[in-house]
């Protein structure tokens, strides 16, 4: 019996959720064109946490915007849950590097924004927003406006707002990039806890090696000009336990390897 | 010790863009008005300038209250306020949707903005003779002058207000399941409302200016006309009264806008 459940879980987790094949993106600029992405191929399995790591300008945000359906690829194929991405959809939630709370809405109204668009009844909406307010620890700020919140709190609302929509995948574009070191650390831990609870597929963008190693199961390392994938790195190495680094040696080895990749 | 404290205090009054105690702010405001009044008293009461050109403050205050106690003067105020509001309302009714459209869709922008930009540089006052040919000197003519003066400016400013909304905010709403119409109605419009109010407040100021221009040239009633009439009789007191009344009306309306803005948009960043 237990084995059957385990087998089903494995099967589910082996399912490919995101599949990008030979993705290229060329931007028209004032003086000709600019190749932002060249032949990018990557996949993300169901319930997996994958990071895309690379220097500034290598096209990380471009990949994410294309995945979200906010921009069109120049060539290549982008599939999510077996369907070609044709435009933005609530199935693919996104958290941005900049703060994108709707300032005229309270924290709760922000979290309920997507639910309201779906036409969900208020009682149901409140149940869901209560749950996600608790998940990100902002119950006390349910009725506050964005201008009363700190950067970390704003990003927590943004995460809750995306998750409340129950998306198939969560796309995160350097969500903690603007936060101070301590806030960043607690947000990373919070995100891991949420991921384990919610079992969402997450694509996480960062240029912080430690962050990528701490959070993800796999990492794609990119280079810039043109944006290309250099290597796929297995990061599911039991480096951390309860948020503490336990295997310093292995951690340093992987980190050194990534640094050498980025340097070349 | 005492001296040092005083020095520190002075510094806090001159910090770049920092708040200062309310009483200091109030002192500054009063000082400016008192200074203005003093210069006026000096010039007129000491007869440095002939009374025909610059009446004394007392004389102006006298005719101010005389004017306000006459029903005819209230009639002039009424007709002027009516014209301003009609012209302004018309400009808003047409200009705000067009501005939002131009700030939202590039195609609409291409149709609306360059033309507005062009016409904006044609002074509305120069249209008055043309408008008189088209519409005579009835109410329509005056309202049209105010409309032309404020409409194109309004369209450009509203388009800019709309354009300033961060693209990520729109992207975020798309990824939350909003369609195009919902992005406009549920994000773009609420996001720009405080800025829109500020824009309308500015345009209101323009509308008053054009009202006076229109009434100076082509009217037989209204505040601008009463100023014009006073000039014919060298009645400088009444000219002053007219200017002050227009200024006060503008100030009252401006304060109303500011108050509404604060009440309606408590979430907006920054002051009003
Ligand atoms: N709309 C656009 N038009 C022209 N060039 C663009 C456009 N958007 C992005 N680019 C270019 O494409 C490249 C990749 O941009 P992108 O924002 O994806 O980088 P990134 O990896 O997310 O960088 P960062 O870490 O700084 O956020 C950059 O060199 C950028 O200048
Ligand atoms: Mg980026």
From TrEMBL, chain A:
<feature type="domain" description="ABC transporter">
    <location>
        <begin position="18"/>
        <end position="249"/>
    </location>
</feature>
<dbReference type="InterPro" id="IPR003593">
    <property type="entry name" value="AAA+_ATPase"/>
</dbReference>
<dbReference type="InterPro" id="IPR050166">
    <property type="entry name" value="ABC_transporter_ATP-bind"/>
</dbReference>
<protein>
    <submittedName>
        <fullName>ABC transporter ATP-binding protein</fullName>
    </submittedName>
</protein>
<keyword id="KW-0547">Nucleotide-binding</keyword>
<dbReference type="InterPro" id="IPR027417">
    <property type="entry name" value="P-loop_NTPase"/>
</dbReference>
<keyword id="KW-1278">Translocase</keyword>
<dbReference type="InterPro" id="IPR017871">
    <property type="entry name" value="ABC_transporter-like_CS"/>
</dbReference>
<keyword id="KW-0813">Transport</keyword>
<keyword id="KW-0067">ATP-binding</keyword>
<dbReference type="InterPro" id="IPR003439">
    <property type="entry name" value="ABC_transporter-like_ATP-bd"/>
</dbReference>
<dbReference type="Pfam" id="PF00005">
    <property type="entry name" value="ABC_tran"/>
</dbReference>
<dbReference type="GO" id="GO:0005524">
    <property type="term" value="F:ATP binding"/>
</dbReference>
From TrEMBL, chain B:
<keyword id="KW-1133">Transmembrane helix</keyword>
<keyword id="KW-0813">Transport</keyword>
<keyword id="KW-0472">Membrane</keyword>
<feature type="transmembrane region" description="Helical">
    <location>
        <begin position="118"/>
        <end position="137"/>
    </location>
</feature>
<feature type="transmembrane region" description="Helical">
    <location>
        <begin position="239"/>
        <end position="260"/>
    </location>
</feature>
<dbReference type="InterPro" id="IPR000515">
    <property type="entry name" value="MetI-like"/>
</dbReference>
<feature type="transmembrane region" description="Helical">
    <location>
        <begin position="202"/>
        <end position="219"/>
    </location>
</feature>
<keyword id="KW-0812">Transmembrane</keyword>
<keyword id="KW-1003">Cell membrane</keyword>
<protein>
    <submittedName>
        <fullName>Nitrate transport permease nrtB</fullName>
    </submittedName>
</protein>
<dbReference type="Pfam" id="PF00528">
    <property type="entry name" value="BPD_transp_1"/>
</dbReference>
<comment type="similarity">
    <text>Belongs to the binding-protein-dependent transport system permease family.</text>
</comment>
<feature type="transmembrane region" description="Helical">
    <location>
        <begin position="143"/>
        <end position="159"/>
    </location>
</feature>
<dbReference type="GO" id="GO:0005886">
    <property type="term" value="C:plasma membrane"/>
</dbReference>
<dbReference type="InterPro" id="IPR035906">
    <property type="entry name" value="MetI-like_sf"/>
</dbReference>
<feature type="transmembrane region" description="Helical">
    <location>
        <begin position="84"/>
        <end position="106"/>
    </location>
</feature>
<dbReference type="GO" id="GO:0042918">
    <property type="term" value="P:alkanesulfonate transmembrane transport"/>
</dbReference>
<feature type="transmembrane region" description="Helical">
    <location>
        <begin position="24"/>
        <end position="43"/>
    </location>
</feature>
